[in-house]
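Letters spell out the chain; backbone shape is given numerically. Take this protein:
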Amino acid sequence: MNSIFSKLEWLNQLSTRLTSGFDSLGLLALRLYVSSIFIKAGWLKLKDWETTLFLFEEEYQVPILSPEIAAWAGTFGEIVFPLLLILGLLTRYAALGLFVVNVVAVYSLAEIAPAALASHITWGLAMAVLVVWGAGYLSLDKLLTRFSNKPVII
């Protein structure tokens, strides 16, 4: 029995050593994936602002905010937060902001198709990973940490 556990421990240590260098690449891929989805939505909103305002007045039921303010805030979030994620700058805050935009988008729809809900859940989980683990080494967050005298949480 001990030999099985020692072999499993050895395999676990080996796999950890073999994959440890890929953490930052995975986080970069996650940042680029999430950013591509939301930045396209933001640009589409800007491209046809009249339709965007119509949708926020008639389709999306954002609580508390007026439709126009909700449209501006949502579009801002869908453009600025992804740009920060692409750069890996203020990554945790950008991912958290985009997470909120994602939750509001789901909440504001009266009806959402199961496939769309599944996509939003996937994006939310991706952003949660970035909030917890940060941007990794391939980011401006890490570069700023390297040149700063004070430790910065990346």
Observations:
- Residues 55 and 142 are 39 Å apart (CA to CA).
